[in-house]
Specification:
By secondary structure, the chain is mainly alpha-helical. The chain contains 5 helices and no strands. The chain has helices spanning about 15-40, 45-60, 70-100, 105-120, 125-175. It starts with 12 loop residues before the first helix and ends in a 47-residue tail after the last helix.
């Protein structure tokens, strides 16, 4: 729906959840492609699911109304940083599990593994520019889709009354009851057939009847 005073679009809970889910799906899909192409390694499924849930939790509160392009791009930049951390953590965890276990009693191997894990979370120049370009491209695409969706919402709200008013009149004319309505003060007399005496006759007086009683006029008596 839209605010009639400010003209700013506001979404109901269903539309907010749908917009947040579409936003998270598109963002995770393109970010995973850019991250995988730059790093040259695959991504585990749980990192994709975790990134999607993370973005969904961030997008649902922000999807309550129409957003501008700078606001969308800023949210996408924050999302790209979070997704890079989640994807890098997933790749480092997979590589550590795939590598051979270090010999017992060697602390240097554990220290080097922890150092490589922390270093892998920091984006390199190529990875940074890949996520940055992804954020700006997604910002342009999402903003265009945002404007289109809210334009359709406004048009549908304006034409809703024009379409529903004739339909409501037609349905009222089709399903309206026929015949004259019974007045509220109408009284019905029920004749009891078990009674032996007939009902008393009643005199009906007209509203516009003129009653003239008394002796005739003097001038007219011959």
């Amino acid at each position: 729906m839209t605010d009639a005073m400010t003209g700013v679009g506001r979404a109901d809970p269903g539309m907010r959840s749908l917009r947040a889910a579409v936003f998270s799906t598109v963002c995770v899909a393109l970010s995973a492609l850019a991250h995988g192409a730059t790093s040259g390694a695959g991504l585990p499924w749980w990192s994709l699911a975790g990134g999607w849930l993370l973005l969904l939790g961030m997008a649902v509160p922000a999807a309550g109304r129409e957003r501008s392009r700078p606001a969308i791009t800023a949210m996408l930049l924050c999302g790209q940083m979070f997704l890079h951390a989640v994807f890098s953590f997933g790749q480092c965890g997979t590589s550590v599990e795939a590598s051979a276990a270090p010999p017992e009693g060697t602390l240097s191997a554990h220290a080097s593994a922890g150092h490589s894990l922390l270093a892998g979370l920091m984006p390199g120049p190529a990875m940074f520019f890949a996520h940055l370009a992804c954020a700006f491209v997604l910002g342009w695409v999402v903003h265009r889709g945002e404007r289109t969706v809210w334009r359709l919402v406004r048009v549908s709200m304006r034409t809703a009354g024009v379409v529903t008013a004739p339909l409501a009149a037609l349905l009222a004319a089709v399903f309206a009851p026929t015949g004259r309505a019974v007045p509220a003060d109408a009284r019905f007399r029920v004749f009891d057939r078990s009674r032996t005496d007939p009902p008393k006759s009643e005199t009906v007086l007209l509203d516009h009847a003129v009653i003239r009683r008394g002796p005739p006029a003097v001038g007219r008596v011959s």
